[in-house]
């Protein structure tokens, strides 16, 4: 019942956003330009030097594509979880609370939009990377379903990180700076191999904000057969555990929320 209601609400939200076609097209074009420019800068450097700490251009392209797709799925299906602060500051969360549906479900379906630019570019990067790696004999066709599994588990991890960060807003109210670290900065950094960073930062990306399990850890198994299935299963376990802990933090924060009318 909840899934059926969620799909109904998110379809209605997307339909309302699509009414502003020029704004939609302009936003998609700008997002495409930003992501293309970001990747091209790295690609040009790697084309010059061949590899970075043993990671080839196509391997980095693979990591980049997985992160883009996982993030795009998360932001498509639960966009306003990232924007809880504006609901807390304006008091608009009260309007969601009085609805006869779970607050989180109502929040997830607000202002929903399909991120066509990110989904398209992420898919293109993955196709290019995997095709080249297959031609080199580094991976086989079994990597395709495993990659789909990694993308989905990565979307769950990113959603859990976003939900946990937003839940802290029930105590902190202003969480934009925190989100810049836990979501934006960490996801940007995790588009590249964690081996590029110092040990303390690698630990942070695995144990504190587990973005390393979105793409890097499972990719070690898929691309290099390192760690065995444990690396892949570990990412799925981290996704399940992160989601559980984030949901508990959300429930605790919501129970302590005091509306603007109280």
Q: Report how far the terminal alpha carbons are from each other.
A: 32 Å
Shape: elongated
Query: Roughly what fraction of the amino acids lie in strands?
Result: under 5%
- Give the spatial strand order of the biggest sheet: 1-2
InterPro entries: ABC-2_transporter-like
Transmembrane segments: 55-74, 86-108, 114-134, 146-172, 200-217, 229-250
Keywords: Membrane, Transmembrane, Transmembrane helix
Protein name: ABC transporter permease
Please tell me about this protein's structure.
With 262 residues, the protein is an all-alpha fold. It has helices at 2-17, 21-49, 57-77, 84-90, 93-97, 103-108, 116-135, 143-167, 169-172, 176-189, 199-208, 216-224, 229-255; strands spanning 51-52, 55-56. The protein has one domain (2-255). It has 13 helices and two strands. A hairpin with a 2-residue loop joins strand 1 (51-52) and strand 2. It is elongated. 35% of the residues are buried. Keywords: Membrane, Transmembrane, Transmembrane helix. This is ABC transporter permease.
Give the SSE layout.
Layout: H1 2-17, H2 21-49, E1 51-52, E2 55-56, H3 57-77, H4 84-90, H5 93-97, H6 103-108, H7 116-135, H8 143-167, H9 169-172, H10 176-189, H11 199-208, H12 216-224, H13 229-255
Antiparallel strand pairs: 1-2
Helix pairs in contact: 2-7, 3-7, 3-8, 8-10, 8-12, 8-13, 12-13
């Amino acid at each position: 019942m909840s899934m059926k209601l969620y799909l109904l609400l998110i379809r209605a939200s997307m339909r309302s956003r699509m009414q502003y076609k020029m704004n939609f097209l302009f936003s998609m074009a700008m997002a495409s330009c930003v992501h293309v420019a970001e990747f091209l800068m790295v690609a040009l450097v790697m084309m010059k030097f061949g590899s970075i700490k043993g990671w080839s251009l196509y391997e980095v392209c693979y990591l980049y594509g997985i992160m883009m797709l996982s993030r795009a799925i998360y932001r498509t299906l639960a966009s306003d979880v990232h924007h809880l602060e504006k609901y807390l500051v304006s008091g608009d969360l009260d309007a969601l609370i009085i609805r006869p549906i779970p607050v989180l479900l109502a929040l997830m379906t607000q202002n929903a939009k399909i991120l066509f630019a990110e989904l398209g570019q992420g898919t293109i990067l993955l196709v290019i990377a995997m095709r080249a790696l297959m031609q080199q004999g580094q991976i086989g066709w079994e990597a395709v379903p495993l990659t789909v599994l990694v993308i989905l588990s990565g979307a769950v991890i990113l959603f859990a990180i976003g939900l946990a960060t937003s839940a802290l807003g029930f105590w902190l109210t202003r969480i934009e700076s925190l989100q810049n670290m836990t979501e934006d900065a960490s996801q940007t950094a995790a588009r590249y191999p964690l081996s590029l960073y110092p040990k303390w930062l690698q630990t942070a990306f695995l144990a504190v904000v587990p973005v390393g399990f979105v793409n890097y850890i499972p990719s070690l198994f898929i691309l290099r057969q390192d760690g065995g299935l444990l690396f892949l299963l570990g990412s799925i376990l981290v996704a399940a555990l992160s989601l559980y802990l984030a949901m508990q933090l959300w429930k605790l924060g919501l129970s302590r929320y005091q509306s603007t009318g109280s």
